[in-house]
Design a protein that fits this description.
300 residues, alpha/beta, Rossmann fold, two-stranded parallel sheet, 9 helices, 13 strands
Length: 300
């Protein structure tokens, strides 16, 4: 269970990048009485969340007064990690800091030809974004005495980020590259992993965050079509797909990611251990109109 507030000192979470994942984490913490601060590229253009103090960054001055927990989801670039560049010295000296969560990516492992990787696998990124993340991980780890926890996320999906809208528009394609699989994770399961870590901090820990079943992308899309009662889109060979360089780069990495550590160390039981259970939940949430997709602020 996450720690509830006291009358004098409620725990405070600073979300550097109040994006899709941070919003999922914030909801239960708000219910437990936490103070939540989030940053976006433009707070005036971002869908507000009741109880969350939204700031524009870069732009607004960020006060770290009372901050006990920090979640970092702003992506690095070729120029480096913007959070570290601007805030590392201040973060390193925070007197009440109990937990820092850095959202990384399984791209740091690179390509393993469909083989399995875990948190002990040496990092060998094969894409620029993987290299930037691996470098950022190292830089965060270099801050002495920081209560850092690194979460390497697989492909994120959930309400508002499922395949259903594309299928209903007729734009979906089942691109097939023989032997290719991807690991993925429902946003609600990311949230429960992060909250379990907050409740059971282990500074220095690294966790893979993914479901139990790496799967070919064409299988996932085909199942989503079946859930909608639509014809399964025809297969398109990878070589003929005419994909953008960014899209093609994802297919340059083929691996299966193990998630044993989140279960053994954090006691996590996945809500959606495979894409079938996850997609059913996404469709139910979207049909019930319980989710309004946020604007696209920085962060995962």
């Amino acid at each position: 269970m996450v720690r509830s507030m006291t009358q004098q000192t409620p725990p405070t979470l600073l979300c550097l990048g109040f994006g899709y994942t941070a919003r999922a984490v914030a909801a239960p913490l708000l219910g437990a009485g936490w103070r939540i601060i989030g940053t976006t590229r433009d707070s005036a253009e971002t869908q507000p969340v009741e109880g969350v103090d939204l700031l524009t960054w870069p732009g607004d001055d960020i006060s770290f007064d009372g901050v006990t927990h920090i979640l970092v989801s702003i992506a690095p670039s070729e120029q480096g990690d913007p959070v570290l560049g601007a805030m590392a010295a201040r973060i390193a000296t925070l007197p009440r800091l109990e937990w820092v969560g850095y959202l990384s990516t399984t791209a740091v492992y690179g390509d393993h030809g469909g083989g399995w990787v875990d948190e002990t696998t040496p990092l060998s990124p094969s894409s620029p974004r993987g290299e930037w993340r691996a470098r950022a991980e190292t830089e965060w780890q270099s801050i002495a005495d920081l209560p850092l926890h690194i979460f390497r996320l697989a492909g994120i999906y959930g309400p508002g980020r499922g395949p259903f809208a594309k299928l209903m528009s007729g734009r979906a394609r089942r691109i097939v590259k023989p032997g290719q699989v991807f690991s993925r994770i429902h946003v609600d399961d990311i949230a429960q992993v992060l909250l379990a870590s907050v409740a059971r901090p282990n500074p220095g820990a690294v966790y893979n965050v993914c479901d139990d079943e790496p799967a070919p992308p064409q299988d996932v899309l085909g199942y989503a079509a079946e859930l909608l009662g639509l014809p399964v889109p025809a297969e398109v060979p990878f070589e003929e797909a005419g994909m953008s360089p960014m899209a093609r780069s994802f297919y340059g990495e083929n691996k299966r990611v193990r998630n044993d550590r989140i279960k053994a160390e954090l006691g996590v039981r996945l809500l959606y251990p495979d894409y079938r259970s996850g997609l059913k939940a996404v469709l139910a949430a979207e049909d019930m109109e319980r989710f309004v997709p946020p604007a696209d602020p920085p962060g995962v």
